[in-house]
Automatic annotation (TrEMBL):
<dbReference type="InterPro" id="IPR015421">
    <property type="entry name" value="PyrdxlP-dep_Trfase_major"/>
</dbReference>
<dbReference type="GO" id="GO:0005737">
    <property type="term" value="C:cytoplasm"/>
</dbReference>
<dbReference type="InterPro" id="IPR015424">
    <property type="entry name" value="PyrdxlP-dep_Trfase"/>
</dbReference>
<dbReference type="InterPro" id="IPR049704">
    <property type="entry name" value="Aminotrans_3_PPA_site"/>
</dbReference>
<keyword id="KW-0413">Isomerase</keyword>
<dbReference type="GO" id="GO:0008483">
    <property type="term" value="F:transaminase activity"/>
</dbReference>
<dbReference type="InterPro" id="IPR004639">
    <property type="entry name" value="4pyrrol_synth_GluAld_NH2Trfase"/>
</dbReference>
<keyword id="KW-0663">Pyridoxal phosphate</keyword>
<comment type="pathway">
    <text>Porphyrin-containing compound metabolism; protoporphyrin-IX biosynthesis; 5-aminolevulinate from L-glutamyl-tRNA(Glu): step 2/2.</text>
</comment>
<dbReference type="GO" id="GO:0030170">
    <property type="term" value="F:pyridoxal phosphate binding"/>
</dbReference>
<protein>
    <recommendedName>
        <fullName>Glutamate-1-semialdehyde 2,1-aminomutase</fullName>
        <ecNumber>5.4.3.8</ecNumber>
    </recommendedName>
</protein>
<dbReference type="Pfam" id="PF00202">
    <property type="entry name" value="Aminotran_3"/>
</dbReference>
<keyword id="KW-0963">Cytoplasm</keyword>
<comment type="subunit">
    <text>Homodimer.</text>
</comment>
<dbReference type="GO" id="GO:0042286">
    <property type="term" value="F:glutamate-1-semialdehyde 2,1-aminomutase activity"/>
</dbReference>
<dbReference type="GO" id="GO:0006782">
    <property type="term" value="P:protoporphyrinogen IX biosynthetic process"/>
</dbReference>
<dbReference type="InterPro" id="IPR005814">
    <property type="entry name" value="Aminotrans_3"/>
</dbReference>
Length: 429
């Protein structure tokens, strides 16, 4: 594969940008190659600056549920752009998207738009602390909630990929108010939440973990989490930045029938433009300024281009049969992957729910951070490189999700399966 132009750009990028990238996992270090620079993307295809074409299973880390450059999304952005790109004042599109999201997400009465998933989670824990008057945030090992100080404790995503245990620059005083406990472990959960020495304001959870690779929760664990937090007056925050509008129109909460107090969103609701949001019960959301004293603001929040893109995307996903179709093809794809994994020369464990999947290079089952960490990241690196050479664009880390989109047709998925079969055969232990 010719990669001269990407190599040139990477050299130039490293001169001006730390590691040559604007988000660490993109540097592809854990999979042993340099990043390819993207020229364009359309549907489920992505084309690099050297003209190589790939079937994309990253989808910009989740937002592109319709595939790239969906005509209705592009048209909406163009139409919004000619009216002005930011006003710093309310505009009608925000109201329309807010009402659409609140109607779709079962537990959400009110919503506040921000500019990223990180801003959403950071603001949600501030609100939880403001409401309860308590300090401690409980999270789960291997879950990732963005890069705000409070979350960089046993975090997932790039933090695992790069093997960074915490992060310099995050004061001890902040970290001591974050408690990270194992995912899917009801006993430790109950012990922790009932500990009267802890001043717990909230629990934040990915209702399906996507940032240590995909880890599906035991329903009993999520139910227990809901019961205990309700009983103990602790705010339950679902971080649905990945799962929102992906696992169902109403996200994981609709799929599992478990309602949090606050929900964080991002990715799909911005149609591929920078966005985040948090929302929930009226009584909580009315504490946010200017209605209440919990301050949170943003120059570009409710940006008209992001609102227009999000609205266009959400209109499409609400069409009859959208999720049933995405689910059916993901089920078929996942089942075929499981057959290939079972026949592979090395142990591989496939975790999947709906259109989210991770092949862990370990015997499994992978149910939490400890079992995810038994995966052989070097073997994943080999797999990644074989797949890339065969025209398949996967997440450049063992500890991330793959995403199937509405734009993937059976032929694309079959090509990915064929490449997977031959890549598995080439793996060298
Ligand atoms: C579950 C989850 N929460 C929060 C974030 C942070 O979102 P962002 O990268 O938009 O800040 C991400 C992704 O990065 C995520 O996957
Ligand atoms: N795992 C992250 C989002 O879900 C990956 C995105 C990033 O941090 O670049």
């Amino acid at each position: 594969m010719k990669t001269d132009r990407s190599a040139q750009l990477f050299t130039q990028a490293k001169t001006y940008i730390p590691g040559g990238v604007n988000s660490p996992v993109r540097a592809c270090r854990s999979v042993g190659c340099d990043p390819l620079f993207v020229h364009k993307a359309s549907g489920c295809m992505i084309t690099d600056v050297d003209g190589n074409e790939f079937i994309d299973f990253v989808g910009s880390w989740g937002p592109m549920i319709l595939g790239h450059a969906h005509p209705e999304v592009v048209e909406a952005i163009q139409a919004a752009a000619v009216q002005g790109t930011s006003f710093g004042a309310p505009s009608p599109l925000e109201v329309e998207l807010a009402s659409m999201v609140c109607k779709a997400v079962p537990s959400m009465d009110k919503i506040r738009f921000v500019n990223s998933g990180t801003e959403a989670t950071m603001s949600a824990i501030r609100l939880a602390r403001g409401y309860t008057g308590r300090k401690v945030v409980v999270k789960f090992d291997g879950c990732y909630h963005g890069h705000a100080d409070s979350f960089l404790v046993k975090a997932g995503s790039g933090v695992i990929t790069l093997g960074i245990p915490g992060s310099p620059g995050v004061p001890e005083d902040i970290v001591k108010n974050t408690l990270s406990i194992p995912y899917n472990n009801e006993e430790i959960l109950e012990q922790t939440l009932r500990d009267t020495n802890l001043d717990i304001a909230c629990v934040i959870v990915e209702p399906v973990a996507g940032n240590m690779g995909v880890v599906v929760p035991n329903l009993g664990f999520l139910r227990k989490l809901r019961e205990l937090t309700r009983e103990l007056g602790i705010i339950l925050i679902f971080d649905e930045v990945i799962t929102g509008f992906r696992l169902a129109l109403g996200g994981a909460q609709e799929r599992f029938g478990i309602m949090p107090d606050l929900t964080c969103l991002g990715k799909i609701i911005g149609g591929g433009l920078p966005v985040g949001a948090y929302g929930g019960k009226r009584e909580l959301m009315e504490l946010i300024a200017p209605d209440g004293p919990v301050y949170q603001a943003g120059t570009l929040s409710g940006n008209p281009l992001a609102m227009a893109a999000g609205l266009a995307m959400l209109r499409v996903v609400q069409r009859p049969g959208f999720y049933a179709e995405l689910e059916a093809k993901s089920d078929w794809f996942g089942a075929e992957m499981e057959k290939l994994a079972a026949a592979a020369p090395v142990p591989i464990s496939v975790n999947r729910i709906g259109s989210l999947m991770t092949c862990f290079f370990t015997r499994g089952p992978v149910t939490d951070f400890t079992s995810a960490m038994t995966a052989d990241a070097a073997l994943y690196g080999q797999y990644f490189r074989h797949m890339l050479a065969g025209g398949i664009w996967l997440a450049p880390s063992q500890f991330e999700a793959s995403f199937v989109s509405a734009a993937h047709e059976r032929s694309h998925l079959q090509k990915a399966l064929d490449m997977t079969e031959s890549s598995f055969k080439k793996l060298m232990v």
